[in-house]
Description:
- By secondary structure, this protein is of the alpha+beta class.
- It has a domain at 275-341: P-loop containing nucleotide triphosphate hydrolases (Rossmann fold).
- Helices cover 67% and strands 12% of the residues.
- The protein has helices at 2-111, 129-146, 153-215, 254-271, 288-301, 314-318, and strands at residues 219-225, 234-240, 247-248, 276-280, 306-310, 323-330, 333-339.
- Helix 1 runs antiparallel to helix 3.
Amino acid sequence: MIKETLLRIxxxxxxxxxxxxxxxxxxxxxxxxxxxxxxxxxxxxxLKREEVLGEEALGEASRTTKEMESEIKKLTSLVNTxxxxxxxxxxxxxxxxxxxxxxxxxxxxxxxxxxxKYTPEEDTTTLTPEEMAERVTELREKLGSMGEVSLGxxxxxxxxxxRYNFLLEQQTDLVNSSDKLQNAIxxxxxxxxxxxxxxxxxxxxxxxxxxxxxxxxxxxxxxIVGEGDILDCGIEIVAQPPGKKQQNINLLSGGEKxxxxxxxxxxxxxxxxxxxxxxxxxxxxxxxxxIDRFNGFVKEMSAKSQFILITHNKRTMEIADSLYGxxxxxxxxxxxxxxNL
Length: 341
């Protein structure tokens, strides 16, 4: 009886030791899972920060573009205003010129002298008193023959001359300001045209190379629609999937449109890669064959940029390095759940 009890005690002791080891193993596994969960949460926070930085950069670029457009509109409006003011000043200037000409003509008609060119006929400082008296008498007779003298004519002429010079200076300043503004607008438009043309050609070149990779052949390119200033023209996507004729993207099927648009987006990324890219249900309209091509290109691009894909496609989920699901355990409360790969 004692022997059986001792055997049972030894068995229970061994069982307790095994349970203790199992508890230690479970504790170690729980600690590993906790560390991995912490790493995943930190990675999620890092991705969130990068997303915020990207949104801020995109918002700043958008604000800069809007500010430039607003500045161009203001400058154009100011140029038009200055032109109107210049026209009005020219009219006023012409009126003053006519008044000045009328005053000169009246002076010529009444006194026989052009006040703009008048100079004394002789030097009276050398005359003797007798000669001076004769000269005074002669001048008085001339004044009498002239009739009434307008004493305010010279003062009026001087006032109009001052006004004329002031308006002439104002016109010169306005013309110079208008020229400077027009030069600034031309410089901005010239720089914008150069940047647009340079970027368009670079994107079009990469787009032509990327499109066949998505469709296993075919051809696509970007075309400028319209004539005249390139800034006023539109851009058209012309694509030719394998086995089809070249046509506008609007005439393609839903899947072909999505794949063509994806090729264009990735072409832009290849020129100037972004730290990350968020794709929301881009693969939804694609069939299995196009899904594999799309996933292959995303995998290739992931060497330069980080991709966050929102998808329901199993094939796309298979290529992910990290996978998160969204569940709703309680109505109206969404919860992210990490999936161990």
